[in-house]
Write a structure and sequence with these properties.
With about 325 residues, the chain is of the alpha+beta class. It folds into two domains: about 120 residues; about 130 residues, 2-Layer Sandwich (Dna Ligase, domain 1). A nine-stranded antiparallel sheet has the order 4-3-2-1-8-9-10-11-5, covered by helices on one side. The longest helix is centred in the N-terminal third of the chain and has 26 residues.
Length: about 325
């Protein structure tokens, strides 16, 4: 082989080597982050398409449903839900993206609290087309970083749009808890009846007094004002529904308050404590179709009040010092 042929062969081999190196570099060069596809976690989801949302933690489930275009609590007599509370959550679900992949390993799900049997929150979403999704909201990895996983997919992502702390399966988180209110300035008479007896309070000008105040007794205005403020603005812990139950204890209420204003007379009834939760009482206002639960603090105050609670303690008799 001549020298020129040898050089030509070497040139060809060199070109082949360069091409092979270039091909290897192209194949094995790390791909940019864009290779992790970014898009919405729920591709067929929109806020307006959701007809039902069930929120669960490890102990309880709260169901919200859209009926006639309005969000309600179907398990509490369709009690109205604050619309913006629900739509804000659904808007945030719609924003969740798949650009922050954490793991694709099933064995990591329990550790990140996104497993079917070990989760922080589970959101069961029903769409208008009948599609359902379970979205698991898990532990936090720091500010703006909550683990989420969809349905039976193994992938777990981080998101800053959802936070389990703000997704509470308590009815009070989704409704206006103000159950009963009347203007204090319009209230002219109040009666309280419990096992300790019946008391009647009347307004005389700008001041209140006990109607049967005896000579030598002094009305405790502050004690009465504290009770008045409680009954003219009553907040519930949760609604129950619109149908009375025998175990509500309202056939023989533990306390009855009658409030007379310049426009109307309303009756408030305090019933039985919830056997499953001793911290609240059944409560019913005559101007509402709903039975609700109120805190034990409010209920106890009405049930346990006595006449003496609204009287100033008598002044101590002065004692003469012995000489």
């Amino acid at each position: 082989m001549s020298m020129s042929q040898t050089n030509r062969l070497q040139q060809i081999l060199l070109i082949v080597l360069v091409v092979q190196i270039a091909l290897a570099v192209w194949v094995f060069w790390p791909k940019p982050a864009a290779s992790q596809s970014s898009g919405p976690l729920l591709g067929d989801f929109s806020t307006d398409s959701v007809t039902s949302l069930a929120i669960s933690d490890s102990e309880k489930t709260l169901t919200l449903a859209k009926q006639d275009g309005k969000w309600v609590l179907p398990d509490a007599g369709d009690f109205p839900v604050t619309e913006t509370n629900v739509t804000t959550l659904l808007d945030n679900i719609e924003k969740v993206q798949t650009n922050r992949l954490v793991t694709q390993t099933d064995t990591s799900h329990r550790r990140l609290q996104v497993a079917p049997d070990d989760f922080n929150r589970r959101l069961e979403l029903t769409l208008s087309n009948g599609t359902t999704h379970d979205l698991y909201v898990g532990s936090s990895a720091g500010a703006g970083a909550t683990h989420v996983r969809l349905d039976n997919q193994p992938e777990v992502y981080l998101t800053g749009d959802l936070d389990a702390y703000n997704i509470n399966p308590q009815a009070g988180s989704w409704i206006d808890t103000l159950y009963f209110t009347v203007p204090q300035t319009a209230t002219t008479k109040l009666t309280l009846e419990n096992s300790n007896g019946a008391l009647e309070f009347v307004k005389d000008g700008e001041n209140w007094t006990l109607s049967d105040l005896a000579d030598g007794e002094t009305f405790n205005q502050n004690a009465f004002t504290n009770m008045l403020n409680q009954v003219i603005s009553v907040r519930m812990t949760k609604p129950i529904g619109t149908e009375a139950q025998a175990d509500f204890g309202l056939d023989a209420p533990q306390a009855t308050v009658t409030l007379t204003t310049t426009d109307e007379t309303d009756t408030l009834l305090v019933g039985a404590k919830n056997p499953a939760d001793s911290d609240n009482y059944v409560f019913k206002a005559s101007n509402s179709p709903y039975y609700v639960r109120i805190s034990s603090f409010t209920g106890d105050n009405l049930i346990n009040k006595t006449r003496a609670d609204f009287l100033e303690a008598p002044a101590a008799e002065p004692t003469s010092e012995s000489e």
